[in-house]
Amino acid sequence: MQRRNLMRAGLAGMTTFSVGRHALAALNTDAHPADRPRRLVVVFLRGAVDGLNVVVPFSDPAYRSSRPTIGLRAPGQPGGAIALDAHFGLHPALSPLMPLWTAGKLGFVHACGSPDPSRSHFDAQDYMESATPGRKSTQDGWMNRLLGLLPAETGQAGAAPTRGISVGPVLPRIYAGPQPVANLASGDGAGKPTALDRPRVGAAFDKLYAGQDSLSAAYQASRQAHREVMDSLQGPEAQAQEMLAANNGAPLPNGFPADAARLARLLRNDVRVQLAFMAVGGWDTHANQGADTGQLASRLQPLGHGLAALAQGLGPVFEDTVILVMSEFGRTVRQNGNGGTDHGHGNVLWALGGPVAGGQIHGRWPGLDPSAQYEGRDLAVTTDYRDVLAQVAARHFGLSDQDLSALLPGHPVHQASSFSLIKG
Amino acid sequence: MSSHPIGLRRRQLLNLCAGLPLAGAPLIASRTVFAQASAVSDAEALHLLNRLSWGPAPGDVMRMQQMGPDAWVDEQLHPQRLPLPEGLTRALDALPFTHLSQRDAVSQYRRAAQQARRDPEAGKEARQEMLKQLSLEAGEARLLRAVGSPHQLQEVMVEFWFNHFNVFAGKGLDRVLVENYEQEAIRPHVLGRFRDLLGATAHHPAMLFYLDNWQSVAPGFQPRHAGAKNAPTGLNENYARELMELHTLGVDGGYSQSDVTELARMLTGWTFDLRAHGSSLFMFDPQRHDMGSKNWLGQTVAARGQAEGEWALDQLARHPSTARHISDKLAQYFVADEPPASLVDKLSRRFTTTDGDIRAVLQTLFASPEFRDPARYGAKFKTPYRYVVSALRASAIPVSNVRPLLGALRQQGMPLYGCPTPDGYKNTEQAWLNPEAITRRVGFASALASGRLSVDRPTESLPPMANRGNDAAPNSPPSPQPQPVDLNSLLATLGSGISGKTRAALQTEPKALQAALVLGSPDFMRH
């Protein structure tokens, strides 16, 4: 503890004395579950992932006939889906997630999505992130609103910018709003010293950005987040953990798995981080998406590895974390003329974590019969994604009905849902 | 592996073009002209330079005061009136990959791929080197012009329209076609007619490939080679959707899912032929075309082959929703993140009455009180691209190595030719202002101002790996000391764009830090 503080002082100045204490608090799993900090990680698959090939309705007769070359085979057949239950199977590229399914810590809501009919990526993402489908004028994103509704995790003065974290060079729409959030570079740039870590440079720029304006606020958030991240990612405890993680498996590839592992370390070491967001692109498979192998499979593979690394890296914190994986809409039931799929409607939403009622497919399956399809081409939506958000907010974070209305404006609060994705 | 004969030659040429007066002809101090035209204030001149160009370079404000702002704007709208500096022309000529025809670009790519198949080890490496060189030259061509061309508005509009009709260099064939796309489909039309621009992008193989239309076919299509693997069997609606949503009508422009499908049917057969003989690879293949009649945007469309698609482009280019969508984007880009409705109305009318004459629409925009309103001065937050290019222009650092710039753009989330989605990069504060962005910019400013960024130190265009670190080759100049940015010149160039508050703050800081503080100041983050 003392040695750690000394190390840190050498790295980033004397301003972060409290971090070590919080780090230990996060690791203290003896505390009563209700007292332990709750976390939410959202992984957004931009470009509309083909949910029908992620959680495959292999027993639905219309599935294979609509997808003669890209449809996955039933479990047990060569290249077949991995059986989840008697009707659904998981894409084989996601096999790293099966232990979590078996342990009851991975579940899905199928035929989930937005009530808005838009098949524009950009509008649909916007609606998912504002959580006000059909309404473009909403200024803020739902994760920013959620931050505003959650009590800060520690008694320290002022909101730490790292209560909300995003990985990547830009801040997503989902975080737009008045609550401060910080973003980290993806790749190994996060936690590396910058020009501002040189004391003279840092001091000079601190003076230029000492105001209350939006640029100064961003600058100050960045400085503080950078210090905290340097501590969490570079302290001796973190390094020891990293070695531990590395010993448990093959070295992590670049990209999403590495970023996910880094995020896990940060969440584990810094108790103040309550919400985190990552986006993964490349799901817009209009052509040659493949089946058990091919384009979609090669995208799903690092995603599965990364989510498994996130779960593993969180360690005990995984028990108090919900990870949601969502996408703006699904894709057409029928494959198109190029072995791909076009923009559709309903999709599958994934949930991982200790609080998740896993090992089950939640929601109501509408079937793929042409008469059941949305506008005669897409999987229908039977669960509004906002009902999932409401359940996470109510059961995981303990938000009141009044808070839920503020989080999801215009959406009626359903405390008694038809599904139970979050234990509670 | 062969060395690159162009490397040395180019290195010398780049030095010639670098550091020339950046916004046009040599300065001729003329008292009379000055007296006549000095009506433009420093702040107003800077506003015009900030919005119509990639930011002020040394001498730009003075030149505008000599010419008068109206003449300057008019000159920018007619770039052909100003010659390119000889040094820049020669530097651009010395980028062989940027002059490849569509056919040559594709055949280089295929030849390299074949080689890689024949000799996996050496072939693969050669292919990688070729692709790297190609990306580097595309980046050089774009950035050398952005920093050094006197046709600044043209360069701004190249960026605007490329983004509007975005293609992604990371997708297969587009890696070799993206430069040709910019040169042939975008650049010639950036101040011309919208219909020409739309048509040029619609026929270019980079767009046909990127949004999959090249393989969208009528249901039941039989490929010439029976049993061909992955042969297309039906529609792909990707391009048809984005053509209406992003390129023309806008997402609320009044079309339905059925209109998307019907337009996709009208565009079946719009593809390209890799063995084509002419300079364009575009091909309309009647075999692939859906010969049924269509019902699109409330009209019955009889089967007419390629003419259906051309007619659809005419309809889309003249549609009132398109006029509004394009006007809105231009007003946001040039005036404010939330553009004034009065201006969008005005621009839409001008777009419609001139049949989509982009130059005319811009004339209206630049003359509008909404654009000239001093409340707009310095109110836009720079995109990473604008930040990087404007810093180079203001610093007057001769650019002979764009690699650090391409890296900075990547780090800041705006890799050149690297936007994977068809909507292109946004240009709003909401999209780009974030904590990490400020730190990155400050880091870039510090490196640039101290001379450590090495943009002014020529490197071989792509020395073979074995020779790297062996920079003391014959003809290599001795590695010069990093040249810090000159503070006084920087402050003079940026004028009232750097506030009194920032200037006062500089006084107490070490000399060596001052230029970095100017380029990393809140004032320089905006334009």
Features:
heterodimer, A: 424 residues, alpha/beta, Alkaline Phosphatase, subunit A, nine-stranded mixed beta sheet, globular, B: 527 residues, mainly alpha, 4 domains
Q: What this model shows, in words?
A:
The complex is a heterodimer of chains A (424) and B (527). Chain A has 424 residues and is of the alpha/beta class. Chain A has helices at residues 2-12, 19-27, 61-66, 98-102, 121-130, 142-149, 199-208, 214-234, 236-247, 256-269, 295-314, 385-396, 401-407, and strands at 39-45, 55-56, 82-83, 89-90, 106-113, 164-167, 182-184, 275-280, 321-327, 347-352, 361-362, 383-384. In chain A, strands 1, 5, 6, 7, 8, 9, 10, 11 and 12 form a 9-stranded mixed beta sheet that branches. In chain A, strands 2-4-3 form a 3-stranded antiparallel beta sheet, with no helix packed on it. In chain A, a hairpin with a 5-residue loop joins strand 3 and strand 4 (89-90). In chain A, helix 8 crosses helix 9 (236-247) and helix 10 (256-269) runs parallel beside helix 11 (295-314). Chain A is globular and about 65 Å long. Chain A starts with a helix and ends in a 17-residue tail after the last helix. Chain B folds into 4 domains: 95-208, no CATH class; 211-222 and 231-318, no CATH class; 320-376; 381-527, no CATH class. In chain B, helix 8 (120-148) crosses helix 20 (384-395) and helix 11 (194-203) runs antiparallel to helix 15 (306-318). The model of chain B is unreliable at 1-37 and 461-478 (pLDDT under 50). The longest helix of chain B has 29 residues, at 120-148. Chain B is built from 27 helices and 4 strands. The radius of gyration of chain B is 24 Å and the shape is globular. Chain B has helices spanning 5-17, 31-37, 42-52, 60-67, 69-77, 86-93, 102-118, 120-148, 152-164, 174-186, 194-203, 205-210, 238-247, 257-266, 306-318, 320-334, 341-353, 358-367, 369-372, 384-395, 403-411, 429-432, 435-450, 487-494, 500-507, 511-519, 522-525; strands spanning 270-272, 282-284, 294-296, 299-301. Chain B has 527 residues and is mainly alpha-helical. Chain B has a two-stranded antiparallel ribbon. Chain B has a two-stranded antiparallel sheet with strand order 3-4. In chain B, a hairpin with a 2-residue loop joins strand 3 and strand 4 (299-301). Helices cover 55% and strands 2% of the residues of chain B.
